Amino acid sequence: GEDCYGRIWIATWDGGLLMTKYSPNKPLKFNQYLNRSFKERRIHNLEFGKNGELWIATNNGLYYIDSHKRNITDKSFICYNTANHMLPNDEIISLEHTTKGVLWIGALGSGAVECKFSPDHKSLKYHAITTSEGLVNNNVNSIIEDNNGDIWAGTEGGISRINGHDFSIKTYQFSNVLQGNVYSEDCAVKLKDGRLMFGTNY
C-alpha cells in the first residue's frame, strides 16, 4: 500500500514490515519494522483506512500506525493481541475496513471479529462472530464488505454472509468437493459492478 507521502508499505512473511519510497534512477532503500519476534515478523495482510490508518495483520495480533506520521519507529506502532487482552486470538489473517469506518478481521480459530477503536486508538472493543452465532467455520481466511454493507467471510468450510445491521448469518457451500469450500487467504475482491470474487483451494 502507498501512504500520503508516497511511501510504499510491504507486508512480508518472516521479514516483518518494509517501507520504501521510489526515486527515479536511485536504488530502493528499505526501512524494516515489526521484526522483533518470530510471530511478529510473519505478516498476513495490511489495510489502509480512509483517514490514513494502517492496519497490519500478523501472527502476534493486530498492529496500528498513523501513516501521516513522518518519523516512524517500532515504538510508534500500537499492538492489540491476547497478551494485552485486546483480541481473542493472535493469528490475524484478513482485514476489511468498511464504509462505516469499522475494521473487521478474520482470525484463525476466532471467526470474524468486528473492531471498534477508541479515538486515540490505544484500546478497542471487539465483537466476535463465531460458529456459536452461526458462522460456518471459525477459520476466516478472507473477509470483504459488499455494496449493501454486509460482510462476507470466506472460511475453511464455506462462505458466510453477515448482515451488517443485525449480524444474522446465511451460509453458502458452492462446491461438492471439500477443497472447493476452503477459501484461500486474502483472496477476495469486489468488482466495479459490485460482484464479489473469492479464491478457493480447489
3D architecture notes:
The protein has no helices and 17 strands. The strands form five sheets. The protein has a four-stranded antiparallel sheet with strand order 4-5-6-7, with no helix packed on it. Strands 8-9-10-11 form a four-stranded antiparallel sheet, with no helix packed on it. By secondary structure, it is mainly beta. Helices cover 0% and strands 45% of the residues. The model has no long low-confidence stretch (mean pLDDT 95). It is globular, with a radius of gyration of 17 Å.
Quick recap of the structure?
Helix content is 0%, strand content 45%. It has 202 residues and is mostly beta strands.
* Principal-axes shape call: globular
Mean pLDDT: 95
State the separation between the terminal residues, measured CA to CA.
Answer: 28 Å
Tell me the β content: 35-45%
Outline the low-pLDDT stretches: none
